[in-house]
Amino acid sequence: MSAPKKVVLAYSGGLDTSIILKWLQTEYGCEVVTFTADLGQGEELEPARKKAELLGISPENIYIEDIREEFTRDFVFPMFRANALYEGLYLLGTSIARPLISKRLVEIAEETGADAVAHGATGKGNDQVRFELSAYALNPEIKVIAPWREWDLTSRTRLLEFAEANQIPIAKDKRGEAPFSVDANLLHTSSEGKVLENPADEAPDYVLQRITRPEDAPDQPEFVEITFEKGDAVAIDGEAMSPATILTKLNELGGKHGIGILDLVENRFVGMKSRGVYETPGGTVLLEAHRGIEQITLDSGAGHLKDSIMPRYAELIYNGFWFSPEREMLQALIDKSQEHVSGTVRLKLYKGSARTVARWSDHSLYSEAHVTFEEDAGAYDQKDAQGFIQLNALRLKLLAARDRRLK
């Protein structure tokens, strides 16, 4: 790969990406543009601007953007229409943020005339795959630089030595190794590494960033009503809100009640298993509510088909194929299923659980006249069930008769 002339770097302002910024300048002698995304990680982002300026980046080459609404509306909500869970448990909080970051990196590269993008993902993880597959899907000509796969700064000591040699400020708490690494956005917080690496050891309580331990949660339950239109949450307790505002509010409620903690050993796309502790308070509440409204508005055939493709859809997102034609095809099917998924769900939040207790909708398929144990006024003729059973039993009878004959 020829040396890049101008690189757009996914920049957090932290030590690692500051080292990457300086390394790009010294290794390639190229101009660097920084992109810092506010995805709801809960950190002040203006220090990233000051840090970039300190490292010689001109103000017009520093991009800091609040993309929480786009993240929730165009990535999180479409994923939640599918009730997507990777390996049956993981709500894909890190996975779903990467395609949006890549999209903006590629767009900024086009705006600024850059010929490359760069990220700080390591060569062991999934994020390198997600960033790069997304970037190539959006611009097949873009160069992607992954310093962790190229440089010789392979230890914490070498990183700190490089930082000191290049006058990169090092916070006191960065001198020693952090007990675990954290990635956060509006949907979740992910904690991995160090004290969490041995899956035989229980994760210490101090790992939790945004969720109260269930045993410390309030002793009184709290009820919340979530209203949906075509599969997307649009209001909480009757108050209309934007997508990001809804997720923020549900994070607050879920976190308060100890909801959404997951300790998972997952299968990374690159081939190894890894252990992480995920906190997804609002997402866990939202998933339960969405399932609740689908129970009365989604036809059984459509619902069962949708559930059968969900693992494949979740795997595509986990593996970095958000911008693939197969994900888009599945999305079209999922979105078609949501045309009548509108109504309201009431949930009970209590000490780690979010449980649907009521649901109603003008689009409901639920017919009390058909299921009642009381007089149904001819809505359902129970004698019809006999023929239905006999037809479905026919092949079973033939199989059983053959097996008895051959014994």
Automatic annotation (TrEMBL):
Protein keywords: Amino-acid biosynthesis, Arginine biosynthesis, ATP-binding, Cytoplasm, Ligase, Nucleotide-binding
Cellular component annotations (GO), alphabetically ordered: cytoplasm
Domain Arginosuccinate synthase C-terminal: 180-398
UniProt cross-references to SUPFAM superfamilies, sorted A to Z: Adenine nucleotide alpha hydrolases-like, Argininosuccinate synthetase, C-terminal domain
Enzyme class: ligase
Positions bound to L-aspartate: T122, N126, D127
Pathway linked to the protein: Amino-acid biosynthesis; L-arginine biosynthesis; L-arginine from L-ornithine and carbamoyl phosphate: step 2/3
Entry superkingdom: Bacteria
Matches recorded under HAMAP family: Arg_succ_synth_type1
Record's protein name: Argininosuccinate synthase
Species the sequence originates in: Pseudooceanicola batsensis (strain ATCC BAA-863 / DSM 15984 / KCTC 12145 / HTCC2597) (Oceanicola batsensis)
Lineage: Bacteria, Pseudomonadati, Pseudomonadota, Alphaproteobacteria, Rhodobacterales
